[in-house]
Amino acid sequence: MASTAIHLTWFNPVQLEWGPDLLRTHRPDQPFFVLADPHAIPLAMEADLKRHWGELCLGWIWQRSAQSSITAALELCQQLWPLWSAHPKAALLAVGGGTTLDLAKLARFELQDLSLAPAVWRSNKLPADHRRHALWCAPTTSGTGSEVTPWATLWDLDAQPAVKRSWASSQGFADQAWIDPNLTLSCPEGLTRDTALDTLAHALESIWNHHANAITRPLAVRSARMVLQTLPALLKNPLNTDLREQMSQASLLAALAMSQTQTALAHALSYDLTLNENLPHGHACAVWLPMVLDMAAAISPQVQGDLATIFDGPANQASETLSAWLQSLGIVPRDLRSTPAGLEQLHQALGSSRGRNFVGSTA
Length: 363
Description:
By secondary structure, the protein is of the alpha/beta class. It has 14 helices and ten strands.
């Protein structure tokens, strides 16, 4: 029997550095500015890190916005772009969760006119005269994966109604990712849980995905297994560095898979919950995972096989197993398939940019 040729593609240009206490030991080879979230690292760490980095650290900006919104991005550019006028070859080191890293991805593209920025961000079209500055990302949570993906979430709160947009430049990857699992020790219980659920969503959404392939699937399967095994123990022992390292690895593996596949239906459904119910992103994704898992398993033998590996049991029991696991963490799964209004919401989500990545989408 003739074999079937398989064509795979992979592109992720981010240079990875991973290790405990990396931020305190790694010394970069060029000057840089720091953008840091004060909720993620202690304010006293600024002085310690400045002593370690010496003259390489040219400036420090504390990022205090709770959302990666257009307004927050404009405020950051007002602070950052004048610094680049004086030091055009300096990099930007972003230290924080997904909001901080996403804002850095937006601001690293310097424009001639700040007033043009909102239109550029909304259209995903950079003008020819932009300047792209080097970006290094140091995540302080294990979940968003922003450090190794080219996209940035952009909340357009001025739109009526408010809308979640995605900045998706072809040049959007960071240049380096400094992944220090010890930075996640400061995460409170709720943030630890919700960012880990985001990791699980990234892993599973990379499996039931039109773009899944023989490279991404093993990464996603391994990540999902690690989250299911690690998160309950971590929530009981949040200062356990071994568990933090395992969760950091799971986050990275899922992010690498997702950087190739993008997310899918559960993410498409999550955005309304974040906007209208103020649910954290990971929580808003997780409530839909059992339903979407059930839909995907009914469609795809490939998904069935991956789910059997993840859950150590038949794929037709995976949705029930996942629902029980989520409920043990305080997450109540939802299902849209029992009402006409729910089915209409599901249909609309399947037709969205993320929903079209789902294996069950024909849009």
